[in-house]
């Protein structure tokens, strides 16, 4: 008897130890772990520690290859911040590329004149700058986030956990800084930009029934927040229905008679980008409806031959399929009126 009690106690103790190990493991899985230690990222984006900051004027005074970049920067939002009257944090070339004293070391007016006489461009030592292209995507983005997490860009608070950040997409993959003075992506440019990665979605927008994205009447950013969102698929709203009813307000309800559990997720019946079926349906009628509803014979048919006939398109009768406030002739909610 005593041996049995000892065995039971050992078994219980082993079970408790196993449970404790599982719980500790679960807690460990939930801990935030950067891809590299944070100090390593900081070193990557700080630049050379033996270099000094010298200012944009000193960086570019002997360089004419970057004249257009300089003009674009001066007219950009970040360039305006160089004005002392703006009251904004200083942003210049060295904010992203690191301190530049070593890059222009040895470049004198005499050397610039000699190079010009020889038909050569005076170049600085680019190897002393931060090699942005070779940085991990997260470190590239961190260069931008040094400033943009402290300003009025509220949607960036979702960036760290966004699908784009997890997929090693950096800010500069979508926002090319030196293209022009306007650093934002215009809505009409988002389609081509998104297609670079989302080619399966591009194919869906070539189907017969689609949202008018190729016609530039609707844009990807109307539904999706590229910097991350609270809902799935980076949706701008918390639910699919809330996103869709931004445009399809007549489907929002609430209705007296609602369509059961499908009301909060439009994608149960509709595919958002494009479909071979009318109204962006995932399946044609009646097969879509038959996934949940049993079939029935047509009512009011007197011909013996036609009594065996079944409907082929449910919405010919149930036209208010998203919801209605009116009962059917039977007194029930059949979405007829």
Descriptive labels:
two-stranded antiparallel ribbon, mainly alpha, 337 residues
Explain what the structure shows.
This protein has 337 residues and is mainly alpha-helical. Among the domains are: 92 residues, no CATH class; 81 residues, no CATH class. Helices cover 34% and strands 2% of the residues. The protein has 14 helices and 4 strands. The longest helix is centred in the first third of the chain and has 29 residues. It starts with a helix and ends in a 13-residue tail after the last strand. The mean pLDDT is 79.
Quick rundown:
With 337 residues, the chain is an all-alpha fold.
Number of strands: 4
Uncertain runs are none
Order of helices and strands: HHHHHHHHHHHHEHHEEE
Task: Please give the alpha-carbon distance between the first and last residues.
Answer: 76 Å
Question: What is the average of the pLDDT values?
Answer: 79
Shape: elongated
Order of strands, main sheet, comes to 1-3
The fraction of residues assigned to DSSP E strands is: under 5%
- Computed over alpha carbons, the radius of gyration is 31 Å
Number of helices: 14
SSE layout and pairings?
Blueprint: H1 2-30, H2 38-46, H3 56-60, H4 67-75, H5 77-80, H6 93-97, H7 109-117, H8 137-148, H9 163-166, H10 171-174, H11 187-195, H12 199-204, E1 209-210, H13 220-223, H14 240-244, E2 257-258, E3 274-275, E4 323-324
Antiparallel strand pairs: 1-3, 2-4
